[in-house]
Design goal:
alpha+beta, Hypothetical protein af1432, 2 domains, 5-stranded mixed β-barrel, two-stranded antiparallel ribbon, 9 helices, 7 strands, 43% helix, 20% strand, disordered C terminus
Amino acid sequence: MTTLEPGRPVEGVFAVRRKERRMSRKGSPYLALTLGDATGTISAVIFDEADWFAGQFEEGDRVRVTGEVTARGGKSVLRVRSLRPAEAADQDVDLLPKSHRDPEDMFGFVLGLADEVIDPGLRDVLQAFADDAELAQMWRTVPCTRNGHHAYLGGLIEHSVGVAMLCQSLCTWHPRVDSDLLVTAALLHDIGDVRCFVVGEATVDQTEEGRMLGHLVIGQQMVDEVSRQVGLAADRRLALLHVIGWHHGPPPGAHISGASPEAIALWRANAMEAGVKARLEGASTLDEA
Protein backbone atom coordinates (compact mmCIF):
# COMPACT_ATOMS: atom_id res chain seq x y z
CA MET A 1 0.00 0.00 0.00
CA THR A 2 2.98 2.30 0.36
CA THR A 3 3.08 2.73 -3.44
CA LEU A 4 -0.48 4.05 -3.64
CA GLU A 5 0.31 7.74 -4.07
CA PRO A 6 -2.19 10.52 -4.96
CA GLY A 7 -2.92 10.67 -8.67
CA ARG A 8 -2.09 7.05 -9.28
CA PRO A 9 -4.69 4.78 -10.95
CA VAL A 10 -5.44 1.53 -9.17
CA GLU A 11 -6.76 -1.81 -10.33
CA GLY A 12 -6.50 -4.89 -8.18
CA VAL A 13 -8.01 -7.40 -5.79
CA PHE A 14 -8.58 -6.37 -2.18
CA ALA A 15 -10.33 -7.62 0.95
CA VAL A 16 -13.07 -5.41 2.36
CA ARG A 17 -11.98 -4.90 5.94
CA ARG A 18 -14.67 -2.31 6.76
CA LYS A 19 -17.84 -1.10 5.06
CA GLU A 20 -19.89 1.83 6.35
CA ARG A 21 -22.70 3.88 4.80
CA ARG A 22 -22.39 7.60 5.49
CA MET A 23 -23.98 10.86 4.40
CA SER A 24 -22.11 13.67 2.71
CA ARG A 25 -22.51 17.32 3.67
CA LYS A 26 -24.93 17.67 0.76
CA GLY A 27 -27.09 14.85 2.12
CA SER A 28 -26.05 12.21 -0.41
CA PRO A 29 -25.11 8.69 0.72
CA TYR A 30 -21.64 7.32 0.15
CA LEU A 31 -19.68 4.28 1.24
CA ALA A 32 -16.58 4.55 3.42
CA LEU A 33 -14.41 1.45 3.10
CA THR A 34 -11.16 0.06 4.33
CA LEU A 35 -9.55 -2.13 1.69
CA GLY A 36 -6.58 -4.35 2.39
CA ASP A 37 -4.13 -6.76 0.88
CA ALA A 38 -0.97 -8.50 2.06
CA THR A 39 0.94 -5.20 2.15
CA GLY A 40 -1.48 -3.15 4.26
CA THR A 41 -4.72 -1.17 4.09
CA ILE A 42 -6.08 1.99 2.52
CA SER A 43 -9.24 4.03 3.09
CA ALA A 44 -11.60 4.09 0.12
CA VAL A 45 -14.84 5.86 -0.81
CA ILE A 46 -17.65 5.21 -3.26
CA PHE A 47 -19.66 8.34 -4.04
CA ASP A 48 -21.59 7.36 -7.17
CA GLU A 49 -24.51 4.93 -6.79
CA ALA A 50 -23.42 4.11 -3.26
CA ASP A 51 -26.58 2.24 -2.30
CA TRP A 52 -26.42 0.07 -5.40
CA PHE A 53 -22.81 -0.82 -4.73
CA ALA A 54 -23.64 -1.51 -1.08
CA GLY A 55 -25.77 -4.47 -2.15
CA GLN A 56 -23.00 -6.03 -4.22
CA PHE A 57 -20.56 -6.98 -1.44
CA GLU A 58 -20.11 -7.37 2.32
CA GLU A 59 -17.32 -6.97 4.82
CA GLY A 60 -14.83 -9.81 4.44
CA ASP A 61 -15.44 -10.23 0.70
CA ARG A 62 -12.76 -10.27 -1.94
CA VAL A 63 -13.46 -7.61 -4.53
CA ARG A 64 -11.82 -6.35 -7.71
CA VAL A 65 -11.54 -2.58 -7.67
CA THR A 66 -10.60 0.15 -10.11
CA GLY A 67 -10.19 3.81 -9.19
CA GLU A 68 -7.59 6.40 -8.40
CA VAL A 69 -5.81 7.60 -5.29
CA THR A 70 -6.64 11.09 -4.06
CA ALA A 71 -5.45 13.14 -1.10
CA ARG A 72 -8.01 13.96 1.58
CA GLY A 73 -7.04 15.58 4.87
CA GLY A 74 -3.39 14.83 4.26
CA LYS A 75 -4.02 11.11 3.74
CA SER A 76 -4.24 8.94 0.65
CA VAL A 77 -7.77 7.76 -0.13
CA LEU A 78 -8.82 5.46 -2.95
CA ARG A 79 -11.80 6.83 -4.88
CA VAL A 80 -13.53 3.77 -6.29
CA ARG A 81 -14.92 3.96 -9.80
CA SER A 82 -15.95 0.33 -10.16
CA LEU A 83 -16.16 -2.61 -7.80
CA ARG A 84 -17.28 -6.17 -8.38
CA PRO A 85 -16.91 -9.50 -6.58
CA ALA A 86 -13.58 -11.17 -7.21
CA GLU A 87 -13.54 -13.85 -9.87
CA ALA A 88 -12.39 -17.44 -9.47
CA ALA A 89 -8.96 -16.53 -10.81
CA ASP A 90 -8.60 -13.98 -8.01
CA GLN A 91 -9.02 -16.48 -5.18
CA ASP A 92 -5.32 -17.29 -5.09
CA VAL A 93 -4.32 -13.68 -4.41
CA ASP A 94 -2.83 -13.45 -0.90
CA LEU A 95 -4.66 -10.67 0.95
CA LEU A 96 -3.49 -11.15 4.53
CA PRO A 97 -0.18 -9.73 5.77
CA LYS A 98 2.28 -12.26 7.16
CA SER A 99 5.32 -12.23 9.40
CA HIS A 100 8.60 -12.08 7.54
CA ARG A 101 9.79 -14.77 9.94
CA ASP A 102 8.80 -18.38 9.26
CA PRO A 103 6.21 -19.43 11.87
CA GLU A 104 7.59 -22.96 11.80
CA ASP A 105 11.02 -21.61 12.72
CA MET A 106 9.41 -19.55 15.48
CA PHE A 107 7.70 -22.68 16.82
CA GLY A 108 11.10 -24.33 16.83
CA PHE A 109 12.26 -21.51 19.12
CA VAL A 110 9.29 -22.24 21.41
CA LEU A 111 10.29 -25.90 21.63
CA GLY A 112 13.93 -24.97 22.20
CA LEU A 113 13.10 -22.52 24.98
CA ALA A 114 10.77 -25.08 26.56
CA ASP A 115 13.59 -27.66 26.53
CA GLU A 116 15.69 -25.30 28.66
CA VAL A 117 13.03 -25.18 31.40
CA ILE A 118 14.29 -27.40 34.24
CA ASP A 119 11.19 -27.40 36.46
CA PRO A 120 9.38 -30.64 35.42
CA GLY A 121 5.91 -29.26 36.15
CA LEU A 122 6.40 -26.14 34.03
CA ARG A 123 7.97 -28.25 31.27
CA ASP A 124 4.85 -30.43 31.30
CA VAL A 125 2.65 -27.36 30.95
CA LEU A 126 4.60 -26.10 27.94
CA GLN A 127 4.71 -29.58 26.42
CA ALA A 128 0.93 -29.95 26.76
CA PHE A 129 0.37 -26.74 24.81
CA ALA A 130 2.93 -27.69 22.16
CA ASP A 131 1.47 -31.20 21.77
CA ASP A 132 -2.05 -29.91 21.12
CA ALA A 133 -1.90 -29.95 17.31
CA GLU A 134 -4.92 -27.71 16.72
CA LEU A 135 -3.86 -25.16 19.32
CA ALA A 136 -0.24 -25.20 18.12
CA GLN A 137 -1.39 -24.53 14.57
CA MET A 138 -3.37 -21.51 15.73
CA TRP A 139 -0.41 -20.40 17.85
CA ARG A 140 1.68 -20.31 14.68
CA THR A 141 -1.02 -18.63 12.62
CA VAL A 142 -2.98 -15.89 14.40
CA PRO A 143 -1.87 -12.28 14.78
CA CYS A 144 -1.12 -10.75 18.16
CA THR A 145 -3.52 -7.83 17.63
CA ARG A 146 -5.84 -6.68 14.85
CA ASN A 147 -4.61 -3.10 14.53
CA GLY A 148 -1.62 -2.70 16.84
CA HIS A 149 1.70 -4.50 17.11
CA HIS A 150 2.31 -7.81 15.28
CA ALA A 151 -1.03 -7.43 13.46
CA TYR A 152 -0.29 -10.07 10.84
CA LEU A 153 -0.36 -13.83 10.46
CA GLY A 154 2.33 -15.36 12.63
CA GLY A 155 2.41 -12.28 14.84
CA LEU A 156 1.46 -14.11 18.04
CA ILE A 157 4.26 -16.63 18.00
CA GLU A 158 6.78 -14.01 16.85
CA HIS A 159 5.87 -11.76 19.78
CA SER A 160 5.81 -14.65 22.26
CA VAL A 161 9.30 -15.76 21.28
CA GLY A 162 10.60 -12.18 21.31
CA VAL A 163 9.34 -11.56 24.84
CA ALA A 164 10.66 -14.91 26.06
CA MET A 165 14.12 -14.20 24.68
CA LEU A 166 14.19 -10.79 26.37
CA CYS A 167 13.20 -12.45 29.63
CA GLN A 168 15.87 -15.10 29.20
CA SER A 169 18.51 -12.39 28.79
CA LEU A 170 17.25 -10.65 31.94
CA CYS A 171 17.61 -13.87 33.90
CA THR A 172 21.26 -14.08 32.92
CA TRP A 173 21.82 -10.64 34.43
CA HIS A 174 19.62 -11.32 37.48
CA PRO A 175 20.20 -15.01 38.35
CA ARG A 176 17.91 -14.82 41.40
CA VAL A 177 14.93 -14.41 39.07
CA ASP A 178 13.07 -17.70 38.59
CA SER A 179 13.98 -18.23 34.94
CA ASP A 180 11.80 -21.33 34.50
CA LEU A 181 8.73 -19.48 35.76
CA LEU A 182 9.45 -16.32 33.78
CA VAL A 183 10.21 -17.99 30.45
CA THR A 184 7.15 -20.24 30.75
CA ALA A 185 4.94 -17.22 31.46
CA ALA A 186 6.54 -15.28 28.61
CA LEU A 187 5.83 -18.02 26.08
CA LEU A 188 2.22 -18.38 27.27
CA HIS A 189 1.30 -14.82 28.24
CA ASP A 190 -0.76 -14.17 25.08
CA ILE A 191 -1.87 -17.75 24.41
CA GLY A 192 -5.50 -16.65 24.82
CA ASP A 193 -5.22 -15.01 21.38
CA VAL A 194 -5.67 -18.42 19.78
CA ARG A 195 -9.31 -18.23 20.85
CA CYS A 196 -9.70 -14.51 20.10
CA PHE A 197 -9.26 -14.58 16.33
CA VAL A 198 -10.70 -16.41 13.34
CA VAL A 199 -8.53 -16.35 10.24
CA GLY A 200 -10.50 -16.30 7.01
CA GLU A 201 -9.38 -16.22 3.40
CA ALA A 202 -9.32 -12.44 3.26
CA THR A 203 -9.85 -11.14 6.79
CA VAL A 204 -9.04 -11.82 10.44
CA ASP A 205 -12.12 -11.48 12.62
CA GLN A 206 -12.52 -11.34 16.38
CA THR A 207 -14.43 -14.14 18.07
CA GLU A 208 -17.31 -13.37 20.39
CA GLU A 209 -15.35 -14.94 23.24
CA GLY A 210 -12.39 -12.72 22.46
CA ARG A 211 -14.53 -9.60 22.26
CA MET A 212 -16.30 -10.25 25.54
CA LEU A 213 -13.47 -11.66 27.69
CA GLY A 214 -10.20 -10.58 26.12
CA HIS A 215 -7.05 -12.60 25.59
CA LEU A 216 -5.71 -12.18 29.14
CA VAL A 217 -8.73 -13.74 30.85
CA ILE A 218 -8.98 -16.49 28.25
CA GLY A 219 -5.26 -17.20 28.47
CA GLN A 220 -5.30 -17.48 32.26
CA GLN A 221 -8.23 -19.89 32.02
CA MET A 222 -6.35 -22.02 29.49
CA VAL A 223 -3.13 -22.07 31.52
CA ASP A 224 -5.01 -22.86 34.72
CA GLU A 225 -6.83 -25.76 33.07
CA VAL A 226 -3.69 -27.27 31.54
CA SER A 227 -1.70 -26.77 34.75
CA ARG A 228 -4.30 -28.74 36.69
CA GLN A 229 -4.41 -31.47 34.03
CA VAL A 230 -0.65 -32.08 34.16
CA GLY A 231 -0.58 -31.91 37.95
CA LEU A 232 1.45 -28.73 38.39
CA ALA A 233 1.86 -28.01 42.10
CA ALA A 234 -0.64 -25.45 43.38
CA ASP A 235 1.98 -22.93 44.46
CA ARG A 236 3.67 -23.05 41.04
CA ARG A 237 0.32 -22.84 39.24
CA LEU A 238 -0.63 -19.72 41.19
CA ALA A 239 2.81 -18.19 40.64
CA LEU A 240 2.49 -18.78 36.88
CA LEU A 241 -1.00 -17.29 36.73
CA HIS A 242 0.19 -14.32 38.79
CA VAL A 243 3.01 -13.54 36.34
CA ILE A 244 0.75 -13.88 33.30
CA GLY A 245 -1.89 -11.73 34.96
CA TRP A 246 0.61 -8.88 35.29
CA HIS A 247 1.82 -8.81 31.68
CA HIS A 248 -0.14 -5.61 30.98
CA GLY A 249 0.78 -4.10 34.31
CA PRO A 250 -1.06 -4.11 37.66
CA PRO A 251 -4.42 -5.91 37.44
CA PRO A 252 -7.45 -4.02 38.76
CA GLY A 253 -7.09 -3.46 42.49
CA ALA A 254 -3.48 -4.66 42.59
CA HIS A 255 -0.49 -2.63 43.73
CA ILE A 256 3.02 -2.93 42.36
CA SER A 257 4.26 -3.88 45.82
CA GLY A 258 2.38 -7.15 45.47
CA ALA A 259 4.05 -8.18 42.21
CA SER A 260 6.72 -10.85 42.07
CA PRO A 261 10.03 -10.01 40.36
CA GLU A 262 8.98 -12.30 37.52
CA ALA A 263 5.69 -10.41 37.11
CA ILE A 264 7.53 -7.10 36.89
CA ALA A 265 9.98 -8.59 34.40
CA LEU A 266 7.25 -9.92 32.10
CA TRP A 267 5.30 -6.66 32.26
CA ARG A 268 8.35 -4.63 31.20
CA ALA A 269 9.64 -7.11 28.62
CA ASN A 270 6.22 -7.37 27.01
CA ALA A 271 5.87 -3.59 26.81
CA MET A 272 9.38 -3.22 25.41
CA GLU A 273 9.02 -5.84 22.67
CA ALA A 274 5.54 -4.67 21.67
CA GLY A 275 6.48 -0.99 21.82
CA VAL A 276 9.58 -1.32 19.67
CA LYS A 277 7.75 -3.47 17.12
CA ALA A 278 4.80 -1.08 17.02
CA ARG A 279 7.11 1.84 16.33
CA LEU A 280 8.89 -0.08 13.59
CA GLU A 281 5.52 -0.89 12.02
CA GLY A 282 4.15 2.61 12.46
CA ALA A 283 1.30 1.35 14.65
CA SER A 284 -0.49 4.14 16.49
CA THR A 285 -1.53 2.29 19.62
CA LEU A 286 0.02 0.02 22.22
CA ASP A 287 -3.24 -0.62 24.04
CA GLU A 288 -3.23 -4.30 23.10
CA ALA A 289 0.37 -4.99 24.09
